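Hi support team,

I submitted a single chain yesterday and got back a structure, but I'm not sure I'm reading the token output correctly. Could someone confirm the output below corresponds to the sequence I sent? I've pasted both exactly as they appear in my results page.

Thanks,
R.
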Amino acid sequence: MHTPFRLHTIVAAVGLAAASLLPVAHAQNIRIAMVIPTTGPLTQYGDMVKEGASTAVEMANAAGGIKGKQIELVAVDDACEPKQGPVAANRVINAKIGYVVGPVCSGASIAAAPIYNNEGVVVVTPSATSPALTDGKNYHYIFRTIGRDDQQGPSAAKFIINKAKPKKVAVVHDKQSYGQGIATSVRDDLKKAGINVVLFEGINAGDSDYSAVITKLKSNGVDFVYYGGYHPEMGLLLRQAAEQGLKVRMMGPEGVGNPEVNAIAGNAVEGMLVTLPADFAANPKNAAVVKAFQDKKRNPSGAFQLTSFAAVQSLLESIKAVGDNPAKVADHLHKASFDTALGTIGWNKQGDLKAFDFQVFEWHKDGSKTPAAK
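Hi R., thanks for writing in. Yes, this is the structure output for that exact sequence:
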């Protein structure tokens, strides 16, 4: 169990050592806010984003920063809660910070996005996958360095249809923006393919006993379960299903791909299927980036480390090109393409990546993952 760093006020997380040596230059640093959960049950996702953003900033500062200015990361907690999203946004705006990596969770991102957009703050989320963040919003300042649920959902459904080939599927979700959204996408694709979805059921995030839904799974003769949501609930579903003698394959989105699921599920986690961003850390072109992570004892192959790294890369490249001006940076992000740890990326008009590679992995009880064969 990791110990999350807890921040109750805005605290500079990176670059303080350099700033303390150069007090005059400190005010001229280029500041980027990381809006992440540093409290609540989803802090490990915040840690992933912090590792990626911190590594990118450290590498940029070591290379001289931007035109003599150092980059400074500022961590702001939103607990991954929709009601905290606007509060965090107002903290960023009051601190006069023009750039954000985050928010991490879709619900908090959706709640905060109109505030950032109206105030001209450039947001690049490395992890919020809900289409509702960008669809029909006409935002100019909101971007993401991860694919959408309607890209991830089809990847999961395609695997279920072509590889898992179940007879009776249950689709379960946590009733939240992210979980229910991706669960709906998977269910719809399965139905179109003629797969028998016998149950579409919501559970309450944060509950400790899911025996009622497990009983429903058993009584419906389900042989495959897709769960839309995060790792705490997935871990309990896996463990309690095993305890009740329900032997089914379970699959989830990148929100369940977290080492802490092992602590909750125990051995029942073995064989869990998860859609994740492709393992960009395995790309030889990222060798120097991977080494920078490893030198700091950070994990470059988690779900959001390299999407966060790429978010910072894109922001810094834009600031280099057009100056420290959020309006010009937003324009540049829309027009340009960027060579990042994810490969060459670019955005469409509404701030979504033009393409993104989700893959299916099999999770193991030792916390490792391997590409899923079936």
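A quick pointer for reading it: The domain at 150-271 is CATH 3.40.50.2300 (Rossmann fold). Let us know if anything else looks off.

Best,
Support desk
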